[in-house]
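Teaching assistant's notes for section 4

Start the section by putting this record on the projector. Ask students to predict, before seeing the second block, whether DNA-binding transcriptional regulator, GntR family will look compact or extended. Collect guesses on the board.
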Amino acid sequence: MPVASTSSARRPPPPVSRTDFVRDAIKEAILSGEFGPGETLVEAEVGALLGVSKTPVREALRILAGSGLVTMSTYKGASVRVMDAESAHAVYDLRALLEPEAVRRAVEHGADFGDARQVLAGVETGADAADRAKASLTNRLFHRALYAGCGNPLLVEVLDGLRDQAALITVTGWGISPTWQGEAAEHRAILAAAESGNARQAEHLLRRHITDFLDRVACGLPGEHSTETKGTR
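Reveal the predicted structure now:
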């Protein structure tokens, strides 16, 4: 792409590398449920699906393994991570500690929740796989729009780092209990509290939203029978 020749012109974004393209495609397939937990990700097959060689697929899988979405085995290769009960409790415990606090601060700082409102305005819930994929994306966008204005970039960065693993738990959980329609109603209540300036109510509703979801699906996660209900309330 040409570089802008005037100071007033905006420089166009750099082209996406093949590795980035493959990483984003695999990530979206995992977080929409298209690639299910435990599913083997064969480099040649993924490459053929995306029209690339095995090299960017191999690099992308290593990056996704670092973010906790993929597991790598010397003998079995790469596969979608199976989120067990212990890991889910750990991720949701941290979310329940940090995310409601970030939203409370966003409300108190007078953050604009227009992006969150726009996300919810486009929601159409349903019961088929396509709706589940859309609901997964909407869920991620909505939660980030709530906490993005908290005023602490490091807190936002930490929560962003949790988003992928939390989304993987969400997709797994919806396979156990397809509750995204009810969760959309909870989202509307949280947003209403935030936009009305009721920071404590928004904080309370979001914490309950996070912990109630885990309570609903934990019994269906691998390893829950050997994991005491730790509770994140």
